[in-house]
Every structure is written in C-alpha cells, then in structure tokens.
Amino acid sequence: MIDLHCHLLPGLDDGAVTLDESLAMARMAAADGVGVIACTPHITPGVYDNDGATIRARVDELQSALDTAEIPIALVVGADAHIAPDFVARLRCGAIPSLNDTRYVLVEPPHHFMPPMLEEFFAGLLSSGYVPVLTHPERLSWLSRRYDVMRRLFDLGVWMQITAGALLGEFGAGPRFWAERMLRDGLGHILATDAHDSRRRPPRLRAGFEAAAGLLGEVEAANLVYWRPLAILENRDAANAAAPMISARALNPPRPHTPSFAAARR
Length: 266
Description:
Elements: E1 2-6, H1 19-31, E2 36-39, E3 42-43, H2 52-68, E4 74-77, E5 80-82, H3 87-92, E6 104-108, H4 118-127, E7 131-135, H5 147-156, E8 159-163, H6 164-167, H7 173-184, E9 190-192, H8 205-216, H9 218-233, H10 260-263
Parallel strand pairs: 1-2, 2-4, 3-5, 5-6, 6-7, 7-8, 8-9
Helix pairs in contact: 4-5, 8-9
C-alpha cells in the first residue's frame, strides 16, 4: 500500500517529534503492509514555515535512517500545504513541494470555516497545471452545511483524500458519517493515514482499507490505497488508474514492494 499523507518527519510540525518516533511509526507502517510513504509536513504560514528545501533534506536524512534500521519503507517528498494567496507562486519556485515532484499537490483548507473564493482558488490551481488533492474533507466542520461545494470541487477536477481513521470512528461520528458518504457518493479518490505519531494517531492504513472494502468492495478499496496513489506518484492520469482483481492478502506482502519511482531515491 502507499500512504500519501503522513507527518513522519521529526521536528517539523505537530507530527513526529524525534527520530525514534519516526522510526517507530515507519515500523508500524511496514508491518501494516505499507511500502511507500509521502512525507507531508504542514506548511502553514506563520505557524509551520517549512519549505521545499528543508523537507527534501529531512526526507533524505530519514530515508538513510530507515535503510540503516532495515525498515522496508521508501519515502517521497510532499507537504500538507495550507491555502494561501501565493500558493501557485510558491509551488512554481519549489517552496511548496508537490507529491514526488508531480503535478499532484496536497492542499489543506481551514477546518472551521469555508474561505471566500474557495472554488476560484482551486480553479486557479487547476488552470496552472496542478491537480489539488484536498486533505481530509470529511473532518471539516463546515462540510455538513456546504456538501454542495465538495460536489462542485469534485466536478471541477479537485481530488479528495479521505482519512483512514475517520472510517474507523477515530475522529467521532460526524467525520465517520461524511467519510462513508463521500466514498459511497464516489467523491473519495484516495485513502491515507494523516498519521502524526505511533500512539494517538498511528499509521493504520490496512484497517481503513478493510473498512472501505466493506463499503465499496476490495477492488475499489485497492484503488484507494494503491493503484491511484501509484499513478499519482508516477505523474500519470490517476483518474483512469484501475485495480485488477486483488485480495486483502495480496496487499500485505512479507516485504513491501518498492516501485521504481521510489527506488531511485534510495
């Protein structure tokens, strides 16, 4: 499986604090059947002022530590970037890294209010050649009042990343309801952990896959955790990525497969 949203890098945001914590999270992810993780620390102006150069350096350092510890996880760059007026300019100059340097980029909207001109913001990203992947929409407190906006963003071409833990009820009944509804309505493109540590918010993608399989069947669940994420990291048209018949057992090999795009980084 491939986890495209994980706060694995130590000391950059509210995710892992120490290298030991990062290694513990990576071991958990590998045991869970994950072979590739996108390191996506917050980029929130004035709060988490991370940038592409810092994130790349930290990814290389952590990859070396994983290799030394013989943890079979391949890392790629990314960021959980908060909406800001200069978003496109910062993408173009590399201050905001896209997922594995592709046209796909994680975008985090405000949790407690819908910003003005939200649809125009995403339209601008799309017209600039990027594919925004909106993170954890099911947990936005304003979603219940503006579900119509999510439908329009989907129709516009915005991708939606559902959180595995939301399907398991880890964020409460509301986020679980909306995660399930979005998947049933066909509005969820990928499933990711948004893991922050090894205890309170651990990297548990398999349980989310199984919950999604219960709702949609194993083939679509595999699309959520492997086939579409793989197409994203290879910068392909992920919308057309489709899974062959695949079982849950097949997604849990003894040593996770490292795709060629990630092997080049190691």
